Amino acid sequence: MDSMKKIIAIAILFSVFTCEKDDICSAETGTTPKLILRFYNIADQDETKAVPNLLVYGLNDFDEVILFDHIELSAANTDSIAIPLRTDVNFTRFVVHRDFEGDDFETGNIDVITANFEGENVYVSRACGYKTIFNNLALDLETDSENWVINSEILKTTIENETTAHVKIFH
């Protein structure tokens, strides 16, 4: 019986002392980054330009609206926005809705953009697991006669973090 107690005691000590500092995923640890869009003045392409009453939301495979958790329905005037990208497929369709009013998805000017990319799962740590980075970013604007987005410029084709803008949108 004493040998069984020794084995159990050794197993407990081993499990206690083999824990690593990264067994808790720190809030500062990088996670799957969002796509950062920055809006610029088409007339002066070095100047940022806020979009009046901007709302950004996703579209699923059935063209149904998917609201992003961190983007409020109360529209804002902003010159940049962070958009989560899908990790289950190699594209994300989203709407940049200018002059949005209240909760009416019919008012204002709606442009649909598809971000195409190659997702790559990267190991972070035992506690944090994996994150996805996005390579070979390309944008496709669905054009019509009322587009308010005039042009775009991809600044970074790889999305690894959220420290700077990845795309310039000119309007």
As for the number of domains, it is: 1
Q: What is the typical, i.e. mean, pLDDT?
A: 86
Q: Can you count the helices?
A: 1
Uncertain residue ranges: none
- Oligomer kind: single chain
Distance between the termini: 79 Å
Largest sheet: 6 strands, antiparallel
Beta-strand percentage range: 35-45%
Structural class: mainly beta
DSSP strand count: 10
Q: Percentage of helical residues?
A: under 10%
Rg computed from alpha carbons, rounded to a whole number of angstroms = 22 Å
How would you spell out the order of helices and strands? HEEEEEEEEEE
Based on Cα principal axes, name the global outline.
Answer: elongated
Summarize the entry for a quick read.
The chain is mainly β and 171 residues long. The protein has 1 helix and 10 strands.
Task: Provide the fold topology.
Layout: H1 2-17, E1 35-40, E2 51-59, E3 65-66, E4 76-78, E5 80-83, E6 91-98, E7 109-125, E8 129-142, E9 151-154, E10 167-170
Parallel strand pairs: 1-10
Antiparallel strand pairs: 1-5, 2-3, 2-4, 2-6, 6-7, 7-8, 9-10
